[in-house]
Design a protein that fits this description.
binds 2-acetamido-2-deoxy-beta-D-glucopyranose, alpha/beta
C-alpha cells in the first residue's frame, strides 16, 4: 500500500517535472544552438569568416528585433551532437544528410529547427522546422520536385519524362533523381520511369515532326499514362497539339508541363495554351514566373538573417502573450497552463512562417524572391455540356518560392482527385420499367429510379457530378405510377428500341450519356458507343405447369405392370401345382376342398388376400407349398400397402418440359414462339448447335397485340413462350398475384446471352473512365445487389407447389374411384356369371328332359 502511494507520488512529481521542464520565456532568455558544417562551404576562408562573425551577426539582428530580451547563442563547430535538451531553437547550416541527422536529435528534444541546406534536399516537416535550400537560379527544377513529393501532391507510380535535347543532362538527371529517390518519412511508390528526348530544331515544322514521331511510337499500355514534359513555351504548344491529335490527352492520362522560360514581359503567355486543351484531358502547368528585373540577394548571410529575424520576432510575440497571461493568473496557475515545449514549438513555427510569407510578398525584395514559380491547372471536364462549346480554362493552383517551398491552393490535377468537381451534367432517359422508372412524387416532382438509375446515381457519387435529366416529350404515353403494386407488367423485353430523340441527344453530344437500357447491337454502331453491359439477359421459355396424373388407377399404381403379371401368373401356376402335389401324395385323404385344379386356384387366391382356406392339406409336401405361399403373400401385401400410402400422399405429377431438348421432343404436342423484333432471332441464326436452328425454324413470331392470346395458349399447354428469363419471371409473378396459383413453369435451360448497356456518344472521352467504374461496380457485387432488388430472380412457384401438396394429403373420392369401379365390375361380372349359370342350368335341365322323354313314352 505504502509502496504504491510512494510510486504514485513519484510519478506525479515526475510528470509535473517533465511538464515544466523547460523554463518559460519570462524566467529565462531563449537559447539557440548554431551548428555550421564545414562541408557546405567551398572555400575555407568563407567558412572561417562566417563562423567568426555569426555570433555578432545574430546578436545584431536580435538587438534590432527584440528589445526586452535576448537569445543566448551557442555555436558548435562539431556536428556530432546528441542532445539539444537545453535549447529553444537550433539553427543549422549543413549538408542535406547532416541536416536530417541533426533533425533526428532536434525532434527528440522538441525544439524549433531552422535549417539552411544545400539544394535538392527534402524539406523538414512543417510542424517540426523550417528548412531553406540554397537554390541557385536555373537549377531549381529538382528542388520543386522534391517539394511536390514532400507535399504528396502527385500520386504517380509511373512517369514518362519528355524533354528536348537542349536541356543539359545534369538538369534532367537531377529531376529524375528527385522524382525517384526515396524520401525520409515517405513511402516510396514510383514503380517505373522512362525518359524520352526529342531533337531540338529551330524550324517549327521539324520540331512538330519530331514530337509527333516520338508520341506516335509510344506504348501507353506498358509505360503508363503519366507524362512529365519539360519544355519551353513554344514546344509546349507543339506537344499539346500532337497529344491532342493523337488522342493521348484522355481523362485517364495526366500531363504535367514544366515551362522553364520566364513569363514576365510578353514573351510567353500561358493563357494562350487554353485553346489546345481538349475536353476531358488532365493538364497542369508549372511555369517560371521569376521576375528577372527584380533585385535579388541569394547569399547565405541573407537567408540566415531572414530566419533569425523571423525567429526573434516570433519569440518576441510569444513572450508578449506569455506576459499577458502571467498578469492575469497566479504563479501556480501560470505554471500549469503555460505552453509546454511542444506547444511552444508549434506556436513559434507558425509565427515564423507568417513572418516569412510577409517578407516574401513585401516590396523591396529579400533573398526568397530570387525565384518564383506558379502552378496552373486546366479545368476541362464537362465544359462541353455546360456551355455547349469547349471553354476550358486555367485555375491558379499554387506557387513556389525557394524559402517558402510549395504553397498549393488546389490540387495539381483537379479532375483526377475531384472528378467532375460537382458540376451539373445532363443525362437523357425515358420511362421503361424496370430499367428506368420515372415516377411522380406527391409534390409533383419527377423522380428517377430503376436499375439504370441505381448505376447512374452511384456513378455520379463516384465521379463527383450531379445530373439533370432530359426526357423527350414522347408521343408514347407514359404512365406515371405512384407505387410498386400498380406497376403494369411489361410482357416483352423492351430494350431493343430507344426513342429517336434520345439517340439524337447522344449523337449531338447534348448529354453525357443516355441513362437507358439498350441491347448491345450493331444498328447504331456508327454514331454511338455502348458502355460495359450493366446486365446480361438470358433467354428461357415458359410452359404450362404440368398437371397431376389421373389417380383413378391409384390402387394399381404401387406395382408395375410386370409385377402384376408375375403375380397373376404365380397364382395360375400355383393352383395346379398345389392340386398335383396334393393328389399324388400317398397320405392323401380325400378332401373335397382341393380336389380340382380350379378350386386350388381359388384357394391360392384366397390366401393371397389373406382370407385363408377352410382346408389345410394333410400331406407335409402340400403343406410346405402352402406355407411358402403364405410367406410370399406376406411380403407382397406389405410391399403393396406401403407403396399405396406413399402414392396417396404425394401427387403424381406429369413430367415438365424444362430443357430445349425436351421442348424439341414434344414438338408434335406444342408450338413455341417469341416476340417480334427480338434479337433472339439473330442469336439463334448464328448459334452453333443444331438444336437452336430447329428451335428457330419451327418458332412462331408473334406481335405485341397477340400477347393475351399467346398467354392463354401457354396456360392451356399448347404453346411455349420464349423470352428473357426476367420477363418470364415478371409474368409468372403477376399471374401469381391475379390467379393465386401457379399456372406456368419456367425452363431450367438458359440460352443465349443478351447484353444490356447504356449508350454514349461515339468519341466521348469519358467512356473509358465510366467503363472502369462500371467494372468496379460489377466486381464489388453492387450491381448484383441492385439487380436482385429490381428484378425478381426467384420464382415462387416451386415453393408454392410444395405447400400445395402438403394440403392435399386427404384421400378423396377421385383417388378411390378406381377400386369402386373394380367393385362395380365385380358385381356386374358376378351377375353376368349368375345369368350364365342359370342359362347353363336350364339347358342342362332341358337336355335331361329330352333324354328322359323317350324313356317315359
Ligand atoms: C536576457 O539577456 C539580457 C542581455 O543579455 C539580460 O539583460 C537579461 O537579464 C536576460 N534575461 C533573463 C531572464 O535572463
Ligand atoms: C554588429 O553591429 C555593430 C554595431 O552596431 C557593427 O560594428 C558590427 O560590424 C556588426 N556586426 C555584424 C556581423 O554585422
Ligand atoms: C526561371 O527564370 C529565371 C529568370 O528568367 C531564370 O534565371 C531561371 O534560369 C529560370 N529557371 C529555369 C529552370 O530555367
Ligand atoms: C508587352 O506588351 C505591351 C503591350 O502589349 C507592350 O507595350 C510592351 O512593350 C511589351 N513588352 C515586352 C517586353 O515585349
Ligand atoms: C495573355 O494573352 C491573353 C490573350 O491571348 C490576354 O488576354 C492576357 O491578358 C495575356 N496575359 C498576360 C499576362 O499577358
Ligand atoms: C546580401 O545580403 C547580405 C545580408 O543582408 C548582405 O551582407 C550582402 O551584402 C548582400 N549582397 C548583395 C549582393 O546585395
Ligand atoms: C498560400 O497562398 C495563398 C494564396 O495565394 C495565401 O493566402 C497563403 O497565405 C499562402 N500560404 C503560405 C503558407 O504561403
Ligand atoms: C467534388 O468537387 C468539389 C469541387 O471541386 C470538391 O470540393 C469536392 O471535394 C469533390 N468531392 C469529392 C468527393 O471529390
Ligand atoms: C408525335 O407524333 C406526331 C405525328 O405522328 C409527330 O408529328 C410529332 O413529331 C411527334 N412528336 C414527338 C415528340 O415525337
Ligand atoms: C466505339 O465504337 C466504334 C465503332 O463501333 C469502335 O470502333 C470503337 O472501338 C468503340 N470505342 C470503344 C472505346 O469501345
Ligand atoms: C405482325 O405485325 C406486322 C405489322 O405490324 C405484320 O406484318 C405481321 O403479319 C404481323 N404478324 C403476325 C404473326 O400477325
Amino acid at each position: 500500500m505504502d509502496m504504491i502511494s510512494v510510486l504514485f507520488l513519484a510519478w506525479i512529481v515526475n510528470s509535473i517535472d517533465a511538464f515544466n521542464d523547460f523554463p518559460s520565456l519570462i524566467s529565462a532568455n531563449a537559447s539557440m544552438a548554431v551548428v555550421i558544417e564545414k562541408n557546405l562551404f567551398d572555400n575555407k576562408a568563407e567558412y572561417r569568416d562566417v563562423v567568426r562573425n555569426i555570433y555578432n551577426f545574430i546578436a545584431n539582428i536580435t538587438r534590432e528585433e527584440m528589445h526586452m530580451s535576448d537569445i543566448d547563442v551557442h555555436v558548435f563547430r562539431d556536428t556530432d551532437i546528441d542532445s539539444f535538451r537545453d535549447y529553444t531553437a537550433l539553427l543549422s547550416v549543413a549538408t542535406c544528410h547532416q541536416m536530417w541527422s541533426l533533425h533526428n536529435a532536434a525532434r527528440k528534444d522538441e525544439i524549433v529547427h531552422l535549417a539552411i541546406t544545400e539544394q535538392d534536399c527534402p524539406r523538414l516537416p512543417d510542424s517540426e522546422g523550417v528548412s531553406v535550400p540554397l537554390v541557385s537560379s536555373g537549377k531549381e527544377l529538382s528542388q520543386i520536385f522534391f517539394d511536390i513529393r514532400t507535399a504528396d501532391a502527385l500520386f504517380w507510380n509511373n512517369v514518362n519524362i519528355l524533354h528536348d535535347d537542349t536541356f543539359d543532362r545534369d538538369t534532367i538527371n537531377r529531376v529524375t533523381k528527385a522524382i525517384s529517390v526515396s524520401l525520409p518519412n515517405k513511402r516510396f511508390n514510383l514503380v517505373s520511369r522512362a525518359l524520352f528526348a526529342y531533337k531540338h530544331t529551330d524550324s517549327e515544322r521539324n520540331r512538330r515532326y519530331y514530337i509527333k514521331e516520338m508520341l506516335e511510337n509510344f506504348h501507353v499500355d506498358q509505360l503508363g499514362k503519366c507524362f512529365l514534359v519539360i519544355v519551353t513555351i513554344d514546344a509546349a504548344a507543339d506537344v499539346m497539339e500532337a497529344a491532342k491529335i493523337l488522342n493521348m490527352a484522355q481523362p485517364d492520362s495526366q500531363w504535367l508541363y514544366i515551362i522553364t522560360d520566364t513569363v514576365t514581359g510578353n514573351s510567353t503567355n500561358i493563357t494562350s495554351l487554353v485553346d489546345l486543351l481538349s475536353e476531358g484531358s488532365n493538364v497542369a502547368f508549372i511555369y517560371n514566373a521569376t521576375n528577372s528585373d527584380a533585385y535579388c540577394n541569394n547569399s547565405l548571410m541573407c537567408h540566415i538573417k531572414e530566419l533569425v529575424a523571423a525567429l526573434a520576432n516570433a519569440l518576441k510575440l510569444s513572450l508578449m502573450t506569455e506576459i499577458e497571461l502571467y498578469s492575469h493568473v497566479s504563479d501556480e496557475e501560470f505554471e500549469i497552463i503555460r505552453l509546454s515545449k511542444r506547444e511552444r514549438r508549434r506556436e513559434i513555427l507558425k509565427l515564423i512562417k507568417t513572418k516569412l510569407v510577409e517578407d516574401t510578398f513585401a516590396t523591396g525584395g529579400v533573398c526568397g524572391k530570387c525565384l518564383f514559380w506558379r502552378f496552373a491547372s486546366a479545368i476541362t471536364w464537362g465544359n462541353f455540356f455546360i456551355h455547349g462549346k469547349n471553354t476550358a480554362h486555367l485555375i491558379d493552383s499554387g506557387s513556389w518560392f525557394p524559402t517558402l517551398g510549395m504553397n498549393l491552393t488546389d490540387v495539381i490535377f483537379p479532375h483526377i482527385v475531384h472528378g467532375f468537381r460537382g458540376i451539373d451534367l445532363p443525362v437523357a432517359t425515358y420511362h421503361n420499367p424496370p430499367w428506368q422508372i420515372i415516377s411522380l412524387t406527391d409534390s409533383g416532382k419527377k423522380e428517377y429510379g430503376g436499375l439504370v438509375f441505381d448505376v447512374v446515381k452511384y456513378l455520379a457519387k463516384k465521379m463527383n457530378f450531379t445530373y439533370s435529366v432530359l426526357s423527350p416529350a414522347s408521343n408514347r404515353t407514359i404512365k406515371f405510377t405512384r407505387n410498386e403494386s400498380e406497376t403494369e407488367v411489361v410482357l416483352t423485353s423492351t430494350t431493343r428500341e430507344i426513342p429517336p430523340e434520345i439517340l439524337d441527344m447522344v449523337v449531338g453530344k447534348r448529354v453525357l450519356l443516355a441513362a437507358c437500357a439498350y441491347t448491345v447491337n450493331n444498328r447504331g454502331r456508327k454514331e454511338i458507343n455502348f458502355t460495359l453491359p450493366i446486365f446480361i439477359q438470358t433467354y428461357s421459355f415458359l410452359t404450362a405447369k404440368p398437371g397431376q396424373l389421373t389417380r383413378a388407377l391409384l390402387f394399381a399404381a404401387p406395382f408395375a405392370k410386370e409385377t402384376w403379371a408375375c403375380l397373376a401368373a404365380s397364382i395360375i401356376i400355383m393352383g395346379p401345382s398345389l392340386y398335383l402335389i396334393h393328389k399324388y401324395s400317398p397320405s392323401n385323404a380325400k378332401m373335397s376342398g382341393l380336389n380340382s385344379s380350379w378350386r386350388c386356384v381359388w384357394y391360392i387366391y384366397g390366401a393371397l388376400l389373406q382370407q385363408g382356406g377352410v382346408y389345410l392339406p394333410h400331406s407335409d409336401s402340400a403343406r410346405l407349398l402352402v406355407g411358402i405361399w403364405w410367406l410370399v403373400v406376406m411380403v407382397v401385401v406389405a410391399t403393396y400397402s406401403g407403396s399405396l400410402v406413399a402414392f396417396l400422399t404425394f401427387p403424381n405429377m406429369d413430367s415438365a418440359i424444362l430443357t430445349v431438348n425436351a421442348l424439341l421432343a414434344n414438338k408434335n404436342r406444342l408450338t413455341w414462339g417469341f416476340p417480334n423484333g427480338s434479337y433472339l432471332e439473330e442469336y439463334l441464326k448464328n448459334a452453333e448447335e443444331e438444336k437452336y436452328h430447329i428451335l428457330l425454324k419451327r418458332a412462331i413470331i408473334h406481335n405485341a397485340t397477340q400477347e393475351p392470346e399467346i398467354i392463354k395458349k401457354v396456360k392451356a399447354g399448347k404453346h411455349a413462350l420464349i423470352d428473357w428469363r426476367s420477363t418470364l419471371r415478371f409474368l409468372m409473378r403477376s399471374d401469381l398475384l391475379t390467379t393465386k396459383g401457379c399456372s406456368f413453369s419456367l425452363s431450367t435451360d438458359k440460352f443465349m446471352d443478351e447484353p444490356i448497356a447504356m449508350i454514349i456518344a461515339q468519341d466521348s472521352p469519358y467512356l473509358k473512365i465510366i467503363n472502369a467504374e462500371l467494372h468496379r461496380m460489377h466486381e464489388s457485387g453492387l450491381m448484383n445487389k441492385w439487380i436482385t432488388e429490381q428484378i425478381p430472380t426467384k420464382d415462387k412457384c416451386s415453393d408454392i407447389s410444395a405447400t400445395q401438396s402438403v394440403n392435399e394429403r386427404k384421400v378423396n373420392v377421385t383417388d378411390m374411384q378406381g377400386i369402386f369401379f373394380v367393385l362395380f365390375m365385380g358385381v356386374t361380372g358376378s351377375i353376368f356369371l349368375l345369368c350364365c349359370e342359370f342359362y347353363w342350368h336350364r339347358r342342362q335341365v332341358a337336355k335331361r328332359r329330352k333324354l328322359i322323354q323317350p324313356f317315359l313314352s
